[in-house]
Every structure is written in structure tokens, then in C-alpha cells.
Amino acid sequence: MIRVDHLGMTYPGGVRALAPTNLEFHAGEFTVLLGPSGAGKSTLLRCLNLLIAPSSGTITSATLGELKGRRTIRRHRRSTAMVFQQHQLISRYTALDNVLMGRIGYQGVWRSLLPLPVRDKVFALACLERVGLIERALERVDRMSGGEQQRVGIARALAQKPKVVLADEPVASLDPATAQHVLSLLHRICKDENIAAIVSLHQVHFAKTFADRVIGLAQGRVVFDGPPGVLARTALERIYATKEGTVTQHDVEEARGAGLPLPQFLPLQTLS
Ligand SMILES: Nc1ncnc2c1ncn2[C@@H]1O[C@H](COP(=O)(O)OP(=O)(O)O)[C@@H](O)[C@H]1O
Ligand SMILES: [Mg+2]
After folding, report:
1. What DSSP state is assigned to residue 242?
2. Domains in the chain, please, with CATH?
3. How confident is residue 256, by pLDDT bands cut at 50, 70 and 90?
4. Looking at the whole model, is its pTM more than 0.90?
5. Which ligand 1 atom is at minimum distance from the Cα of 44?
6. How remote is the CA of residue 44 from the centroid of ligand 2, in Å?
């Protein structure tokens, strides 16, 4: 369990990306963050991992208590894996070496400079097997397709033995069929391992397929929090009805996909 109380973020320069927010995330729950660009999805994910220091509020984990102090934060990060849109792999390394990077957090600095123990390699290979890439373990990741690279990214996250996975638009740069495959893999692994997953997505239909819970963000505020089954038209309007100028082409396509009446909330100049 991880809980945030009055968690807020205002960036230097004054952009309030997240209004003070209270939320709880549970083991085994697959949460999807929905919202247009600029809604605060990445900010919330970065705060949850303390990649950025929130400007207000606290984060509490069931195992570590309130997250403050370097030691506690380091332990929290070790049990919290990130999956990124651009997967952030080291391109000239093999899939196996990239997955082994997920184990580094468990080593001291000088220990990490020595060859890794065989059991780490065996575990990393098992992680690659989980994402269906065991035969490609020794291939450089820059020779792999986008979908395969993201599967390596998931294997690397898994190698961390995380309690929480934070994924920021993990399938945004993949074609729809590959995106579906990668997301179902991530979903299955998180369910099997009882991991709390918090995943930002652009596609409402993926949220409906995979989410136990949808959190809708608009302009830094939670405007919906519930199961996808009740993510009705009105809720989608609330999520995507943003102030003029923040609607992207992507949002327009989403709105179309969701069958929303475009002129009601989308400024026409964005429909270029
Ligand atoms: N490092 C930053 N410095 C200043 N403003 C930022 C920074 N990162 C994001 N923002 C602003 O915070 C708001 C929320 O951004 P973000 O969390 O990236 O939203 P999303 O991921 O939903 O697109 C936006 O207005 C964005 O421009
Ligand atoms: Mg983002």
C-alpha cells in the first residue's frame, strides 16, 4: 500500500501541475491514469517515486512509513520500478545486460563494479523469459523492435522485484496491436506478482480493458476515481474538457474514439 496525503506540485516558475491530492494505491491493483497532455500524470508518477520532490504533502508506504530521509527514499525507489515511454535502455547493451541493470539497486556501489553473481544472471534470464525474449537475451537492444525493447524494459522492472510499478505512457510510441500485447504482458505480470501498477495511458479503450481503477486527471486535479465500468460519457467529458489551448490532436482522437461530441468542448482550431 502506498498513500499520498495532500500531495501537490508547483514547479519553479509557478506552474501548478498537481493540486493537493489524497490517494491510496493497493497491492495487485492495476490503476490507469487518464487525462490530456499537461493534466499532471507524469508529475504524479514522478512524485510517487520521489524523482521530483513534491512541493506539499506526504507519501507513506505500508512497509517504510512516511517517506523522508535518504535511506528510506532509497529503499522506496528500490521497490518501485519505472517503465518509460522511451524505455530508457542502454542501446549498445544486450537485453540481458539491460535487465541486469535492474538488479544494480540491490548492490553497494563497489559491489556493482564486480561481475554479477550467477544467481542474478539466472534471475535476469527468468525475467526475459516472462516477457517472451529468452532467445534474444544476448542480442543488442538497438537491433530490436519498439515492442521488444519495451518488453526488455518490463523485464528490467521485474528484475527489481518491485512492489510498485510506475509506467508513464509505456505504449504511447507503439502501434495499436503491439501496444495491446505489451500492455497485456505488463498487466499479467503485475497481477501474478501482486504488484501495484500505476500506468498513464492515452487510450480510453485500453483503460477499459485492463484497469481495475481509473483515475482521471484534468488540470492537476483528480476529476474521476473509480472502476472503468462507470467511466461513462460524463466522466470522460470531465477528464477531457480542458481549458482552451491544452487539447492536443491525440485528445481529439481519443474523444472521437469515445464518441464524444467534439464541438462541445474542443476548440475548433485544434482540429488541424
Ligand atoms: N519540469 C517542469 N518544469 C515546469 N513545468 C513543468 C515541468 N514538468 C511539467 N510541467 C508542467 O506541469 C503541468 C503538468 O505536466 P505533466 O505532469 O507532464 O502532465 P502530463 O504527463 O499529464 O502530460 C504542465 O502544465 C507542464 O507544462
Ligand atoms: Mg506525461
Report:
1. P
2. 1-79+162-235 (3.40.50.300), 88-161 (no CATH)
3. low
4. no
5. 17
6. 9
